[in-house]
Design goal:
Layout (H helix, E strand, L loop, with lengths): L1 E2 L3 E6 L3 E6 L3 E7 L2 E4 L5 E4 L1 H6 L7 E4 L2 E2 L2 E2 L2 H16 L1 E2 L4 E6 L5 H13 L4 E6 H8 L10 E6 L4 E7 L2 E8 L3 H16 L1 E2 L2 H11 L10 E8 L5 E7 H25 L2 H10 L1 E4 L8 H9 L3 E3 L6 H11 L1 H4 L1
Helix pairs in contact: 2-3, 4-10, 5-6, 5-7, 7-9
Length: 329
């Protein structure tokens, strides 16, 4: 099956890689996890298969996430992962594809170059970069070319990007390394401190998704989890309530709220007026944490909306941006 030079938009996320192909929509959604044989350096599994191995591997196999906090932490593994995903999307291509990759809004030139190099080595003909909040805004269906202010809060796995966008560019923006993964970290810490039990990242994520909240729930829900008891070292099952999750998760949630507040403080008054009319758009998988929109609305007094298909928003926007390259350049 030959493909004549496709255009691919990739949301290279800390937790998930999502690919969009022109004319086909979202074609790939896989965890950004790679399992490598530490003796030979060979890639054993990528994506869903590798995620199942997290925390469950023997000594010679290492299951890692090559992206940490939105940037490449392991260059060679990222390149191999990209190559795998590009081949999976394109099949055998005659012309290498053009690829647009989104990056957090505050990355350094070195980090940008690492992304471009990794994608080029993985087989891209031309690589374009787009800032995450701008891609998220396009994906959420906001017309960013008009001279009016839109605020986007994109909460991913590794970073939260907050930007005020007008006339196709970001006026004020910030990127903080507090997002989905940070909630998991705080949950692990809280359960260790309160219950003397150590749990893994996957259990913490299950807790966050099923009963996690950052705003008081109408009724308290509970969930049983298993972990290792710190006192006798044996496996133990305990029941956790959503009220405890609120205690565990409120701190990182308030860091995100503070960051939104500081971006609003730096926003020019005309644009700030637009935002109070139009509201704040939330995108990214991290904004699905129960009650985060309510908390942000209460603290800022501005209407908060969660975009449709929040998880794919950035990838959709990246793909749409590729269609309109000339106007964005």
């Amino acid at each position: 099956m030959f493909n004549w030079g496709q255009d691919i938009g990739i949301d290279l996320g800390t937790a998930t890689v999502i690919a969009y192909v022109k004319g086909k929509g979202i074609v790939l959604r896989e965890p950004s996890v790679v399992a490598v044989d530490s003796n030979t350096g060979d890639v054993l599994a990528v994506g869903k298969e590798a995620r199942r191995m997290l925390g469950r591997t023997p000594g010679n196999i290492v299951a890692t996430r090559p992206l940490r906090e939105g940037v490449i932490s392991n260059y060679t593994v990222t390149e191999k992962m990209l190559k795998y995903f590009i081949n999976k999307v394109c099949g055998r291509f005659v012309f290498a594809p053009r690829i647009m990759i989104c990056i957090p809004s505050r990355v350094t030139e070195v980090e940008k170059k690492a992304v471009i190099d990794a994608a080029t080595q993985a087989g891209a003909r031309k690589v374009y970069l787009i800032e995450e909040p701008i891609a998220a805004a396009i994906g959420a269906g906001i017309d960013i070319s008009k001279p009016c202010g839109n605020m986007v809060v994109d909460i991913g796995g590794g970073t939260t990007d907050i930007a005020v966008i007008s006339l196709g560019g970001s006026v004020t923006s910030t990127s903080l390394k507090v997002a989905g993964d940070k909630f998991d970290e705080y949950i692990i810490k809280y359960i260790k401190k309160k219950h003397n039990i150590i749990i893994g990242e996957r259990t913490a994520e299950d807790l966050k998704v099923n009963i996690g909240c950052v705003y008081p729930k109408m009724q308290d829900v509970e969930m049983d989890i298993r972990g290792r008891d710190l006192i006798d070292g044996l496996p133990k099952t305990i029941t956790i309530h959503s009220s405890e999750m609120l205690e565990a998760m409120i701190e990182p949630a308030l860091m995100i709220v503070d960051a939104v507040h500081s971006v609003l403080e730096k926003t020019p008054p005309e644009l700030a007026a637009d935002i109070s009319d139009r509201g704040i758009y939330m995108t990214g998988g991290g904004c699905l944490v129960d009650g985060l929109d309510k908390l942000l609305q209460e603290k800022t007094g501005i209407n908060v909306m969660i975009a449709q298909d929040t998880v794919s928003c950035v990838a959709l926007g990246t793909g749409k941006a590729l269609d309109n390259l000339d106007s964005l350049k």
